[in-house]
Write a structure and sequence with these properties.
A hairpin with a 5-residue loop joins β2 and β3. The termini are far apart. The protein has one domain: Tubulin/FtsZ, GTPase domain (Rossmann fold). The chain is α/β, with parallel strands linked by helices. The chain contains 14 helices and 14 strands. The radius of gyration is 24 Å and the shape is globular. Keywords: Mitochondrion. This is Tubulin nucleotide-binding domain-like protein. Pfam families: Misat_Tub_SegII, Tubulin_3. Belongs to the misato family.
């Protein structure tokens, strides 16, 4: 069935993943009057049996968070109870040898949000969600999780000032200590993995510039030892550049450098994620202090980009994680990619402008593919992708940034979701496209792997109202791109330069050399014509 196993590491990652799971839940169809969903739900969901013997369908995921990070979410939902899980695991209730009085001391429970309460009672939400009412990621959650998916870490507390969980080495040490005590792969991962018939890979949501980066790096290292060549995609969420005190910014930057260095060795693909510090398109109104809104924007692009990996093969062209990864990693060691996206006008599927209507002169995706067949110097479609959601985009760009001709793109995978493009795709000859793609790859030119789905991105009541468009849409046509470019080398070089000055002597050389090797992977075989490093 080509299942995908998900790991969610940390509070920011769980905000992002909650939006992701809410979107997957919206694709389910429950009556014969609705058309079957093009999404294969078995890829991300697992079947089970609930407390009352009813069939359940819960996400194939593991959710790690610190003490206090789960909000009002309960480990035991209405689907399961403690006794049932004990029976499944072969655990018998045993009485302790102490026969005296027992006094139970429990932390005060965090109350459910009004939104969660309305979902449980099956009534309309009394008020729309807002930045004031969303306190935790569980406040806007729409799905049930299996109890074994919930993993609370009690060594640290969320937002603690006494023991802040912010240094990379804190996360590394935490994973090592937990793994020594429990063997996390045996306790948490193996059971979910063995339920899969033909797992296509794993996706990991994690913080990329805090302690969770260290935790995730060690986790991915152990997963790689266990699962060999299986695709392991990691999405590292980073704080917006220039936000917070200078000391905090430097700490986050060093953390990000360590995470990239480790992920480039062990993950199949690592994609840094953050809201760009530059101006966003006029149709995006984002509260940069709201994790709910930030993760909503990132999730829209991430979910749209990975949509081909969970489509039914008989519906539309499916792109498994391994297929997408192969198109990006052109030279064999390009494991870091950047994510870009734009919202399209639903009538024309061209980029939107200030007033919400398409007016760009950029070619439509199908026009670009036709041009790729006829010529060798055609530019990529990136010129009209107006949001770069991967960090390192430090240049002063307007919202409708044009493609920098000094940058070279090695490989790009693009996905368009909308209904207009489907008719255009029927005009394209797949054999011609494949021939053109091979010819360009052999010539060292940019290669575009392209997918399309008529399934648009749904704007649920749990999704923040961050888009201003007329009329207000219920779903969005979205164009997304993952690409490996020379721009990644620029960011890694900047991290290398900073690490050389800021990191301790004991790891300075190893980190600097590792980042240098990563940077060179995005320069080999390409001469941009720049005289930046010339001695003339």
């Amino acid at each position: 069935m080509h299942e995908i196993l998900t790991l969610q590491l940390g509070h920011r990652a769980n905000h992002l993943a909650t939006h992701f799971w809410n979107t997957q839940e919206s694709y389910f169809t429950y009556d014969n009057a609705q058309a079957p969903s093009p999404v294969d739900h078995d890829i991300h969901f697992r079947a089970g049996v609930g407390a009352r013997g009813e069939e359940t369908f819960t996400p194939r995921t593991l959710i790690y968070d610190l003490k206090g990070g789960f909000g009002g979410l309960r480990k035991w939902s209405g689907l399961y109870d403690q006794q049932q899980l004990d029976d499944e695991q072969g655990v018998e209730g045993a009485k302790g040898i102490w026969d005296g009085n027992v006094v139970l001391h429990a932390d005060p429970q965090i109350s459910q949000s009004d939104y969660q309460r309305s979902l449980d009672e099956g009534i309309p939400n009394p008020q729309a969600l807002s930045t004031q009412t969303v306190r935790y990621w569980s406040d806007f959650n729409r799905v049930f999780y299996h109890p074994r998916s919930i993993v609370q870490i009690n060594d640290y507390e969320l937002n603690s000032t006494l023991m802040p969980f912010e240094k990379w080495e804190n996360g590394e040490e935490l994973f090592v200590s937990m793994d020594v005590d429990n063997d996390l792969l045996d306790r948490d991962v193996r059971g979910l993995a063995e339920e899969c018939d033909q797992m296509q890979g794993m996706q990991i949501f994690t913080g990329g510039d805090d302690a969770w980066g260290g935790f995730a790096s060690r986790y991915v290292e152990k997963l790689r030892d266990e699962y060999g060549k299986m695709p392991i995609w990691s999405w590292g969420i980073e704080e917006e550049q220039g936000k917070g005190q200078m000391a905090k910014q430097l700490l986050r930057t060093i953390n990000a450098a360590r995470t990239i260095n480790e992920m480039a060795r062990n993950a199949s693909l690592y994609v840094p994620l953050s809201v760009p510090a530059i101006q966003l398109p006029p149709y995006v109104h984002l509260n940069r202090d709201s994790e709910w809104q930030i993760s909503g924007l990132l999730s829209m692009a991430l979910e749209s980009m990975t949509l081909p990996s969970r489509l039914r093969p008989d519906e539309q062209r499916r792109g498994l994680l391994g297929d997408i990864e192969a198109a990006l990693n052109v030279n064999g060691n390009q494991r870091i990619a950047q994510l870009q996206c734009t919202i399209l006008d639903p009538e024309t599927e061209l980029p939107r402008t200030v007033n919400g209507y398409a007016s760009h002169d950029d070619r439509a995706p199908s026009d670009t593919i036709h041009a790729m067949i006829k010529e060798d110097d055609v530019g990529l479609i990136n010129s009209h992708l107006d949001m770069n959601l991967s960090t390192g985009n430090r240049r002063s760009l307007t919202y409708a940034s044009q493609h920098d001709t000094s940058d070279h793109t090695f490989g790009a995978v693009e996905n368009t979701r909308g209904r207009v493009q489907e008719a255009r795709d029927q005009e394209l000859d797949e054999d011609e496209i494949n021939y053109a793609r091979k010819r360009r790859r052999l010539a060292g030119l940019s290669v575009v792997e392209r997918y399309h789905s008529s399934l648009q991105f749904p704007l649920l009541d749990s999704f923040p109202r961050i888009f201003s468009m007329r009329p207000n849409p219920a779903e969005l046509a979205v164009h997304t791109s993952l690409s490996t470019t020379t721009d990644i080398s620029k960011r890694v070089k900047a991290l290398q330069k900073l690490a050389t000055r800021m990191v301790g002597l004991d790891e300075r050389e190893a980190l600097s050399n590792g980042l240098g090797e990563i940077s060179e992977a995005y320069e080999e075989g390409w001469n941009s014509g720049s005289d930046e490093d010339s001695d003339d």
